[in-house]
Amino acid sequence: MFATRSTLEAMAEHFESAVCPEEVFGTLQGEVMAQLAALKSLHRELTRTCHPDLALPTDKALATQVFQSLGKWDSVARLKVEDNTYGDFLPYRAPAPPYQPVELVVRGQKLKLTGFLAGDFCKRSPR
Predict the structure, then answer these.
(1) Residues whose CB is less than 8 angstroms from the CB of residue 8 and which lie 6 or more positions away in sequence, other chains included
(2) CA nearest to 101, candidates 110, 84, 85, 113
(3) What angle do CA 14, 20, 22 make, to 5 degrees?
(4) Residue 118 has what DSSP assignment?
(5) SS3 assignment, position 105
(6) 73-81 LR contacts (CB < 8 Å, sep 24+)
(7) Whose CA is closest to 26, among 43, 13, 12, 10?
(8) Quick count: other Cβ atoms within 10 Å of Cβ 4?
C-alpha cells in the first residue's frame, strides 16, 4: 500500500509544527511500561504510512524526510516517558549535567567553586 503524496505532506507539516511529542502521538495512559508499549504501537502504525520503501518512487525523498522526523519524535517521546514528563505538553528538556568544580584565581588567590546557587542575590532590601 503506497502512501499518497498528500498524506506525506500533511504528516511532514504536522511533525514540523509540533512542539512536543504529545502533539504527534497524543496522550498515553498507564505506567511507564504501558506507555512505552502504546508508543511502540503508535510508532509502528505511523511508520506503515510513511516508510520510504512503501512510497511511490516520486515520493521517496518526502517519505524519507517524514520517516526520519517520526523517528526523532519517537526518541523524544521515549525520553519523556522514561523521565515521567510525558503528558505535560512541553518540549523535552534534558536534565542538566552535574556541576563540575572550577578553579579560579581572584586577586592572586586560588578559589575552587564546588557548586552554585541560582537566584537574584543583587536585590537590596528596602530601607
Answers:
(1) 50, 55, 59, 62, 63, 66
(2) 113
(3) 85
(4) -
(5) strand
(6) 73/15, 73/18, 73/21, 73/24, 73/25, 74/21, 74/39, 74/43, 76/20, 76/21, 77/21, 77/22, 77/24, 77/25, 77/39, 78/36, 78/39, 80/20, 80/21, 81/28, 81/32, 81/35, 81/36, 81/39
(7) 43
(8) 12
State which amino acid sits at residue 36: L
In this structure, what C-alpha cell is assigned to residue 69? Answer: 522526523
Confidence check: pLDDT of 30 > 90 = yes
Which structural domains are found in the chain, ordered by start? 5-82 (1.10.287)
Beta bridge partners, 105, equal 110
pLDDT, one tens digit per residue, over 56-77 is 999 999 999 999 999 999 999 9
